[in-house]
Design a protein that fits this description.
eight-stranded antiparallel sheet, about 30% strand, about 250 residues, single chain
Length: about 250
């Protein structure tokens, strides 16, 4: 009889204990939230990404020194490409170098490219457009190339990812003809970086005595506007060879 009378009391105590435990576990923690991770040394806070190519038309682009984009530049499967069926010298009839409508300063650019067999093209930046025939007369170039098939592949500093005619890549990691390569270009007032397929390949100062000395020893030494600004338009080059670009986007660096 005494054992039976104790059972209800034990059950009540157990239920009470369980209820207290569940209440405690469901309460919001009072521990302070972890502080945001600070940027690594040398890393800059970035703004929002903006697409420079919508995959459907050439909004935001024009042929250098002209209005609109020539008929040789076409769009398919979300990529823009150069149709070289009507090659005219070292460029293409109805082609020409295309450039962004807007100027850009202190930014990070990302895109993907693939090149045709024996092909040559380039990503040119910090471009001035007033009174010059070609973007490469004013801005430096990240080389786009079939290293194995094009004659420039035999020239150090003229290979894929290079700062054309200045600095060769730190490590050869370009993908074969017909495969997509990932590019990141970081441009600020004082420094620029070329990234290819996840690796930083080139880094250089883009103003001041060191840069001027580099220009003086290059093929661009007689072009008065070359490399004189750290901002400007961005260009995709018509070098008369088949090339494709896609997923082109940019964000400001703060």
């Amino acid at each position: 009889m005494q054992i039976k009378s104790l059972l209800p009391l034990v059950a009540i105590l157990l239920l009470s204990a369980c209820g207290e435990t569940n209440t405690a576990s469901s309460e919001t923690s009072t521990e302070p939230a972890a502080a945001p991770t600070a940027p690594a040394a040398g890393e800059m806070a970035a703004g929002e990404w903006t697409s420079l190519f919508n995959g459907k038309d050439f909004t935001g682009w024009h042929t250098y020194g002209k209005e609109g984009v020539g008929a040789a530049w076409k769009i398919a499967d979300g990529a823009l490409y150069l149709d070289v069926a009507n090659k005219d010298g070292w460029q293409t009839e109805g082609g020409g170098d295309i450039v962004t409508d807007k100027d850009y300063a202190n930014y990070e650019l990302e895109l993907e490219w693939k090149i045709g067999k024996n092909g040559n093209s380039g990503i040119i930046y910090n471009i001035t457009e007033n009174g010059y025939d070609y973007p490469w007369l004013t801005g430096p170039e990240m080389q786009v190339l079939d290293n194995d098939g094009h004659p420039d592949g035999k020239i150090k500093t003229h290979r894929a990812g290079d700062l054309y005619d200045f600095i060769s890549v730190a490590e050869e990691n370009v993908k074969p003809v017909g495969e997509w390569n990932q590019v990141k270009l970081v441009v600020t007032d004082g420094k620029a970086e070329h990234w290819l397929n996840g690796k930083k390949q080139v880094e250089y100062v883009n103003k001041g005595p060191e840069w001027e000395a580099m220009i003086a020893e290059s093929k661009f030494k007689d072009f008065d506007a070359f490399g004189q600004t750290t901002s400007g338009k961005i260009s995709l080059q018509d070098h008369g060879d088949a090339v494709w670009y896609r997923n082109i986007r940019i964000r400001p660096l703060k």
